[in-house]
Amino acid sequence: MDALPSEGKDVNRLRAVLYILPFVAIGVADVVLLLFWGLDPLWGFLILPPILAISLLGYIGFKHGFIRDIGEDSYGEEDDDPPRDTQF
Fold it and tell me: Sign of the C-alpha dihedral, residues 41, 45, 51, 56?
């Protein structure tokens, strides 16, 4: 049994790219702006990896979904009564 849905993978990838693309563009524009202001290029390269890492995490989140009901079968439904023969 696959935990991640296999249908519509292309749609999920495209949607994730479209949602994350503005954040990546703003981050890269920020780095370019810092470099044009005359800041040391090392600062631009130090700022770029966190921007890309957060964008990657956002891409994964949008592609696979943030919250799923995985494990619901093992924990049961909300209206299930607890067993009455416990000691506590």
Answer: positive
> Model-level pTM greater than 0.70?
no
Question: In the predicted model, is pLDDT for residue 82 greater than 80?
Answer: no
Type of residue at 26: I
Q: Which amino acid is at 80?
A: D
From CA 50, how far away is CA 20, in angstroms rounded? 14
User: Around 13, how many Cα atoms within 13 Å sit in the side-chain half-sphere?
Assistant: 5
List the domain boundaries for the chain.
Answer: 9-61
Structure tokens at 66: 């943030």
Which helix (H) or strand (E) covers residue 18, if one does?
Answer: helix 9-36
For residue 82, the one-letter residue type is P
- Within 10 angstroms of residue 52's Cβ, the number of other Cβ atoms is 12
Report CA dihedral (10, 13, 17, 20) to the nearest 10 degrees: 150
